[in-house]
Amino acid sequence: MPAPEAPLSAAPRRPIAGRKSGVMRAAHTANGDVTVRLATVDDIDALVRMRAALIREHAGSAIYGRPRQDLEARARALFAEQLADGQQSCFVAERGGATVGCLRVRESRSSPLLLPSRYGYLSSAYVLPEERREGVLSILVEHALAWCRSRGLVEVRLHVDAMNDGAAKAWEALGFRVAEHLRHRVLTGG
Ligand SMILES: CC(C)(COP(=O)(O)OP(=O)(O)OC[C@H]1O[C@@H](n2cnc3c(N)ncnc32)[C@H](O)[C@@H]1OP(=O)(O)O)[C@@H](O)C(=O)NCCC(=O)NCCS
Hints:
The chain is α+β, with helices and mostly antiparallel strands and 190 residues long. Helices cover 26% and strands 24% of the residues. The protein has a six-stranded mixed beta sheet.
């Protein structure tokens, strides 16, 4: 099992000169305004913390419950690669200058036998525990859906761990219906 992680708090953001992506739109919540913008390489520290926290909150999961020891180092390299990839984007939500959530979206190809040929795929959805149930995921999703529409995509998919009831309810509330189940079997012995 991975070492228990210190409570994740919203990291204060340093001012960044020449940021490529501006603030997009504010959503008013009980805790104040949340703004969403595209992530840049300057967000990698916050993204790595949220990615590691997301995986560690899935401790009992058959798929996500086996993190590698060097999870953070791998997450850092992965985010750097993903932020440079033109087929995907990562959105970050901020409140009072602190990062409070993130959501990644990418363009994926379907089976050549099926329609639609391409769809949007959401992943890395994470909101700090103290910021949940305030509409942060909702506004991140709005931006990700706009990103998909701007690319002509007509469908959006994602995976949710079978044990993650909270996330399942959140996605259901946001209009995402269950379409298939992933089954797995661990092979032991020769
Ligand atoms: C799942 C998660 C991203 C939701 O973020 P959030 O900012 O709290 O979600 P929102 O406040 O935008 O809620 C969106 C909708 O889902 C509902 N919802 C959110 N969490 C819920 C929960 N635990 N139980 C029931 N409904 C929930 C909200 O009521 C809202 O519905 P409404 O629009 O009808 O009011 C957040 O709980 C989280 O980060 N969890 C840990 C990581 C995780 O599980 N990520 C998802 C991986 S698939």
